Every structure is written in C-alpha cells, then in structure tokens.
Amino acid sequence: MSKAIYTIIGFLLFTIGMMALVLSLVGVQLSFLTWIDKPGRLFGFLIRILMILLGVVIVVLSRTDWREEESVDSGN
Predict the structure, then answer these.
(1) Contact 47, 13 (CB under 8 A)
(2) Which of 20-24, 43-47, 64-68 shows the lowest mean pLDDT across its residues?
(3) Which pTM was predicted?
(4) For residues 52 and 42, is the Cβ–Cβ distance under 8 A?
(5) What is the rounded distance in angstroms from the CA atom of residue 72 to the CA atom of residue 19?
(6) What is the mean predicted confidence (pLDDT) over 4-14?
(7) What angle separates helix 3-26 from helix 41-63, to the nearest 10 degrees?
(8) Is there a contact between 8 and 55 (Cβ–Cβ < 8 Å)?
(9) How far apart are CA 10 and CA 8, in angstroms?
C-alpha cells in the first residue's frame, strides 16, 4: 500500500477515536461503535485512547522518509 493510504487510515482512526471520546464524555455514542462499551466503560475508554494513539503512530510512521533517515544515520 502507498503512504497516502496509510496516512488516511491513521487519520481516520485518530479522528473517529477522538470524536468517540468527546461524544462519550457528553453521553452520546457513534452507532457503529456501541460494541466498545459492552464489556464496561473503562474498556471502552481504553479502546478509544488506543484508537487515537494508534492513529497518530500510523500517520507518523507512514510520513517518515526511511531512506533519508538511514543516510543521516550513516553520515552520508
């Protein structure tokens, strides 16, 4: 897959996780994420935080130019 697709996936994960977290503080849920709170509210909170963090990690890793990082590390 290309970098753009990974970036979009990470951004969507971050956005949906952030939206779900903010809406859960108000008492509203996104209809397709109602399964998250079935085991408990703490589990749902942790899954939302995990979605946000995973989204950020995917975006950062997809936008990193690994070839330039290798050339800087090797001193060339």
Answers:
(1) no
(2) 64-68
(3) 0.81
(4) no
(5) 38
(6) 95
(7) 150
(8) no
(9) 5
